[in-house]
Specification:
The chain is an alpha/beta fold. It has 8 helices and 7 strands; from the N terminus they run E-H-E-E-H-E-H-E-H-E-H-H-E-H-H. The protein starts with a strand and ends in a 28-residue tail after the last helix. The model has no long low-confidence stretch (mean pLDDT 97). Belongs to the NAD(P)-dependent epimerase/dehydratase family.
Length: 278
């Protein structure tokens, strides 16, 4: 591939994607709103761009064959804050991709698009949206936008509903963990699969207790290798007793299912900021 664009390059997940993506193309354009993202990899260029600005997004995507769209506010927040980067930003990415003739957008969607389903329901990629927050609602918007741009304008999309791509620090993550190695494999398969149309796939590792079904996305060739069961005994021994009446314990969205709208869902999750340094 000649040119690939990565949004959200300064974020934790983006930091782990930059190097492998730089090896898949002649030119990687990494974008974010940070002033810089450290030392660049071979073939990588950094462009500061605000997702809420169509002009800045349009300029960053010029010549791109594909876009890996990870940029957004990564937590629940008031709707007015979500609106710009997460909703308007999604429109700007797909519209700019269309105007520049890009053929596919690989999108970091989220389990929070369906976060209110009970965890004892083994859900597939075809379940109706059931968002748990404004953050999840924005993911629903972007998935529907992606489907519309495929059906009306022929832009392919792979929407990756990531469960929890972070170190395993809580009981929920024993089922929902997506390791960085499996994240890289998932994004790579979303890029190198010859034809995808509009597709949804869950971003989760090969966990014994994974609560979602990726059978309908098997054509992507995503075969995760890591398994959070290795952490189960220690995590369960230390975790407080869970309440089956608490949506935060019973629903796929975890804490996002129980917080008040507009309030942080990650505040109690113990996420370790282990972004890759360059």
């Amino acid at each position: 591939m000649k040119k690939l664009v990565l949004t959200g390059a300064a974020g934790r997940l983006g930091s782990h994607l930059r190097e492998p993506l730089s090896k898949l193309c002649d030119e990687l354009i990494s974008t974010d709103i940070a002033d810089d993202i450290g030392t660049l990899y071979d073939g990588e260029t950094y462009v500061k761009a605000d997702l809420a600005s169509y002009d800045e997004v349009h300029a960053a995507l010029e010549g791109a064959e594909m876009v890996v769209h990870f940029g957004a506010i990564g937590d629940e927040a008031p709707f007015e804050q979500i609106l710009g980067p997460n909703i308007v930003g999604a429109y700007n990415v797909w519209e700019a991709a269309f105007k520049h003739g890009a053929r596919r957008v690989v999108y970091a969607s989220s389990i929070h698009a369906v976060g209110m389903y009970p965890k004892n329901e083994f859900i597939g990629t075809d379940v109706p949206h059931r968002p748990d927050t404004y953050y999840g609602l924005a993911k629903c918007f972007a998935e529907d936008l992606a489907r519309m741009y495929w059906e009306k304008r022929g832009i392919e999309a792979v929407c990756m509903r990531i469960l929890s791509c972070a170190q395993v620090t809580n009981a929920r993550a024993v089922g929902s963990w997506l390791s960085y190695d499996d994240l890289i494999q998932l994004v790579t398969r979303a890029i190198d699969t010859p034809v995808t149309g509009f597709s949804v796939v869950y971003g989760v590792s090969n966990n014994d207790r994974a609560p979602v079904d990726n059978a309908a996305a098997s054509f992507l060739g995503y075969r995760p290798k890591d398994n959070a069961e290795q952490f189960a005994e220690e995590i369960f021994a230390e975790a407080p007793r869970m309440d089956p009446q608490d949506p935060g314990h019973m629903c796929h969205g975890g804490p996002f299912a129980s917080v008040e709208l507009g309030h942080s869902g990650t505040a109690t999750m113990g996420i370790v900021d282990d972004r890759k340094k360059t």
